[in-house]
Amino acid sequence: MVSHGQNALANGLLRDLRQQPAGRLAVVVTLNIADPTPLDTTGAAFPVEVIVNQRAKGFGANHNAAFERCRAPYFCVANPDIRLTADPFAALLRALEEPGAAVAGPLVRKPSGEVEDSARRFPTLGSLLGKLAGIRGGPEYPWDRGPIAVDWVAGMFMLFRSEAFRAVRGFDEGYFLYYEDVDICRRLHKAGRRALYQPGAEVIHDARRASRRDLAYLRRHLQSMLRFLTRA
Question: From CA 207, how far away is CA 221, in angstroms rounded?
Answer without folding.
Answer: 15
